[in-house]
Amino acid sequence: MPLSPDQQAEIEELRSQPQQTLRAVSPGMEAHLYHARPVLDHGFVRVVDYMGDDAAITQAARVSYGRGTKSVSNDEGLIRYLMRHWHSTPFEMCEIKLHVKLPVFVARQWIRHRTANVNEYSARYSILDREFYIPEADALAAQSTVNNQGRGAALTGEEAERVLRYLRDDAMRAYDHYEEMISTEGQDGLARELARMNLPANIYTQWYWKVDLHNLLHFLRLRADSHAQYEIRVYADAICEMVKDWVPFAYRAFEDYRMGGATLSAAGLECVRRMLKGEEVTQENSGMSKGEWREFQGLIG
């Protein structure tokens, strides 16, 4: 189950006791507070706390730029200007703290974003639950033949059944041995900090993750992308839904300029200019490598 009974009881108690505040609040984010959004088979994401809203971004920008913002007629226009010109500091005025339950192998990818404050459940002090991520059958895929870190066609039939059986059986066997090693019945019992090394990477862990909006949007640009690994992408997608309600102006600008936009090299931009003039541009006369040319063609269709 995603939430333990104790966690659910804590959430219900907190939601039953709303507090008055003088600080800025986002009605969209208030609706997400203390609600756990299920992800994968046993995971979740929930908002524990947040600071700021769209107005906090524009407030900080106007302090920074003073008269330079007078020509911007509204907050959304200013936010789009900031996003368009990569002015990141105003977005750092907003922060969010998330409680995330996720498989360890997803956490290892996630922690590569070293721009957040993280506190993880400790298997040195506590005993991990018998919860493992087991993919749905349609999420099992062969190694990609064109991408060394991606997936290819889905596995089917007997091979898919065998892989699922191995994943379940190996996880349960490892946890059985974990329990046996830490048990103090008739033995001293191995220290938890040592016994945990026998557990597989698909066991679930939990952490609190606090990050500012600028760095969160960078995380989402990479992890909500269609090329990201499925298991981390579904967490990013869930967070996107929360951010969309929290800072709607900033999120729309992010969708336009980061998720839906594209960056061209100087060579790529020159090729576009030449094409607009009616020139025939090929890989050979573009000044690009074959890989760059392939990606350029993908961008311009």
Explain this structure to me?
This protein has three domains: 187 residues, Gyrase A, domain 2 (2-Layer Sandwich), CATH 3.30.1360; 68 residues; 35 residues, no CATH class. The protein has 13 helices and seven strands. Helix 4 runs parallel beside helix 10 and helix 9 packs across helix 10. It is flat and about 85 Å long. It starts with a helix and ends with a helix. The mean pLDDT is 91.
- Strand portion, in percent? 5-15%
The CATH class of the largest domain: Alpha Beta
How can the largest sheet be summarized? 5 strands, antiparallel
Helix count, per DSSP?
13
Mean pLDDT: 91
Low-confidence stretches: none
Shape: flat
| Separation, N- and C-terminal Cα atoms | 44 Å
Q: Please give the order of strands in the largest beta sheet.
A: 1-2-3-7-4
Number of distinct beta strands: 7
Summarize the helix and strand pattern as letters. HHEEHHEHEEEHHEHHHHHH
Radius of gyration: 24 Å
Secondary-structure-based class equals alpha+beta
Helix content: 40-55%
